[in-house]
Write a structure and sequence with these properties.
The protein is α/β, with parallel strands linked by helices. It has one domain: 3-Layer(aba) Sandwich (Rossmann fold). Helices cover 31% and strands 23% of the residues. The strands form two sheets. A six-stranded mixed β-sheet has the order 6-7-8-3-9-10, sandwiched between helices. It has a four-stranded antiparallel β-sheet with strand order 2-1-4-5, with helices on one face. The N and C termini lie far apart (46 Å). Bound molecules: adenosine-5'-triphosphate and magnesium ion. Magnesium ion (MG) binds next to helix 1. The site of adenosine-5'-triphosphate has 12 residues, from strand 2 and helix 1.
């Protein structure tokens, strides 16, 4: 087993570069990203549209290959894994909440949530039981047997979150998980994600534009134009990161906006 770049980190990225296309259509989405993500913490990734957040999550989760640089996840170098090993590693260890949810339209809410458990070898009956329990905790018990097309955006989003959580992955990666949720539901979901991180000792990365989510972050990584430009630890007196801490007001200011700006 390859040794981790920083042994306690669940994710270590070093000088990560990802280009899309070539020639005139070249897009340099990641331009040398260094980032560590730790178990037991909720790490927020914030930054303007198009700065590379979804690209970074996809590379960390082994869905996209980086152009260059190194990613280690749970102590393993993704580049050295065969395709099939990567698929099974991802299934077992990583939960991913996609920005567009990606629910399977022909399966009910609960059946969508069972997928990771079925792939892990659980019986349909056991898997459905766990899926429905989790959906109940997310205030979705009454809609557990509805089809995705019959659910509101916020309900679909909760199904996508449940599907990513249900098999207790060691790394949970969420792309804008509260974007479709009202304040109260968003708060409930963030408390759940925080308990996954802190009580479950899991690493949780959340991309967000939602200022209501900031209070839940142990570590806030700011991203701009393909780079991590700063890391803030708002609740900590002992900074663990190499980069200088930013003040909370500095780090949040670009994302807070004023009510008049309308989002
Ligand atoms: N498949 C692709 N092919 C070409 N360019 C892409 C592709 N996916 C993303 N990009 C470009 O890469 C850059 C980073 O995109 P990415 O989706 O990672 O941004 P983001 O920070 O997640 O944005 P948003 O907040 O809008 O979701 C953007 O300029 C985008 O247009
Ligand atoms: Mg995105």
């Amino acid at each position: 087993m390859a040794r981790g770049l920083e042994t306690s980190a669940a994710v270590s990225c070093r000088d990560l570069v990802k280009n899309y296309g070539a020639g005139d259509s070249l897009v340099r989405a990641l331009r040398g990203v260094d980032l560590d993500v730790f178990p037991g913490e909720l790490t927020l990734l914030v930054g303007p549209s198009g700065c590379g957040k979804t690209t970074l999550l996809s590379v960390v989760a082994g869905i996209l290959e980086p152009t260059s640089g190194k990613v280690e996840v749970l102590g393993l170098d993704l580049a050295t894994m065969s395709r099939s090993k990567k698929v099974s590693f991802r299934r077992e260890n990583i939960g991913f909440v996609f920005q567009q949810y990606n629910l399977l339209p022909a399966l009910s809410a609960a059946e969508n949530v069972t997928i990771p458990l079925i792939l892990a070898g659980y019986s349909r009956r056991q898997a459905l039981g766990s899926a429905i329990d989790l959906l109940r905790r997310m205030d979705m018990g009454e809609r557990a047997h509805a089809m995705p097309a019959q659910l509101s955006g916020g309900q679909q989003q909760r199904v996508a979150i449940a599907r990513a959580l249900v098999h207790h992955p060691r790394l949970l990666v969420c792309d804008e998980p509260t974007s479709a949720l009202d304040a109260k539901t968003g708060h409930t979901i963030m408390e759940l994600l925080r308990s996954v991180a802190v009580e479950g000792d899991r690493a949780v990365i959340i991309v967000t534009h939602d200022s209501r989510v900031f209070e839940f972050g142990d570590r806030i990584a700011r991203m701009e134009d393909g780079h991590i430009t700063g890391i803030d630890r708002p609740h900590s007196r002992l900074g663990r990161e190499q980069q200088p801490a930013l003040s909370a007001s500095d780090s949040m200011a670009p994302f807070m906006g004023s009510p008049a700006e309308g989002g």
